[in-house]
Specification:
The protein is built from eight helices and six strands, in the order H-H-H-H-H-E-E-H-E-E-E-H-E-H. The chain has about 270 residues and is α+β, with helices and mostly antiparallel strands. A four-stranded antiparallel beta sheet has the order 1-2-3-4. A two-stranded antiparallel sheet has the order 5-6. Strand 1 and strand 2 form a beta hairpin. The longest helix has 22 residues. It is rod-shaped and about 135 Å long.
Length: about 270
């Protein structure tokens, strides 16, 4: 039985009147009304006249739910191959940074091209560079000009020496480590040039090196220090040591140990 109708709630009053009206109608008419309502809902959800009618199995509500499920397309999988491959490629890029050899090659190629361009653009360049046996990691540098007011310049002019030949070797972790540089010819005494042509210069040590330093800066620093140290051309051979790369490396290791102990000051003669 329908209870008394509410007086203060419009929605409840409407539902009450509609249910009361339905209860007063015959059962078959009420069923027909519900079928029409479900038929309209099916049409809105894509079940029009052009669509083949399904067998009448189940209630109208179940057929309506079945039609809704048919119109829903599956969501795109979060693990699709393209998305997965993109993520894996990004992860690989982050996990595999460029190797030290690649960094060294790129840096040296850029510097070599820059120096070649500089020396070709000037009629009287300060120095020239060339690769040793086409090896990008081993250079020959010819210092063509020194201070014309220095004794070293007078010695070179007197002996007909036109340049100072330097040999540079770049380690695998360049530019984060300094190159090894030595004088090949002529033999220079003093001027911070040591046995075998090793060069006593803080810039060339791991402690004094910075990755921002360029090869040009290294060469110009040597040109200044060899004059400041009163370098002279050695006219007579002294001692029995061979002027070689091995001798230069031994001398350089020794000076690095000395300066690590005393700093970049001149130690006493007793300390070597």
């Amino acid at each position: 039985m329908i209870s008394e109708e509410p007086t203060n709630k419009p929605i409840q009053w409407f539902c009450f009147r509609w249910l009361k009206e339905m209860s007063s109608r015959p059962k078959d008419k009420v069923t027909a009304i519900f079928r029409k309502l479900f038929a309209r809902s099916s049409t809105k959800n894509g079940e029009g006249p052009s669509r083949q009618r399904e067998p009448n199995n189940g209630s109208p509500a179940r057929r309506l739910l079945r039609g809704c499920r048919d119109t829903v397309s599956p969501a795109a999988s979060s693990g699709s191959p393209s998305l997965t491959s993109a993520k894996s490629s990004r992860s690989k890029t982050l996990e595999d940074p460029p190797s030290s050899k690649t960094v060294r090659a790129r840096r040296l190629m850029k510097e070599y091209k820059d120096l070649q361009r500089i020396q070709n653009s000037r009629p009287d360049p300060v120095f020239s560079v060339e690769l040793v046996d086409d090896n990008l990691f081993e250079w020959h540098v010819r210092l063509l000009r020194v201070d014309p007011e220095s004794d070293l310049y007078n010695d070179m002019t007197e002996l007909g020496i036109t340049s100072i030949l330097l040999h540079l070797i770049f380690p695998e972790n360049f530019p984060f480590a300094p190159p090894f540089m030595r004088v090949i010819s002529p033999r220079i005494e003093k001027g911070f040039v040591m046995e075998g042509g090793a060069i006593c210069m803080e810039l060339l040590t791991p402690r004094g090196w910075a990755s921002a330093y360029t090869v040009e800066a290294v060469i110009m620093q040597f040109a200044a220090s060899v004059v400041k140290g009163q370098g002279r051309i050695q006219r007579k051979a002294k001692g029995q040591k061979v002027f070689s790369r091995r001798t230069a490396e031994e001398s350089f290791r020794s000076l690095v140990k000395t300066h690590e102990k005393y700093g970049w000051v001149t130690p006493s003669l007793a300390d070597g």
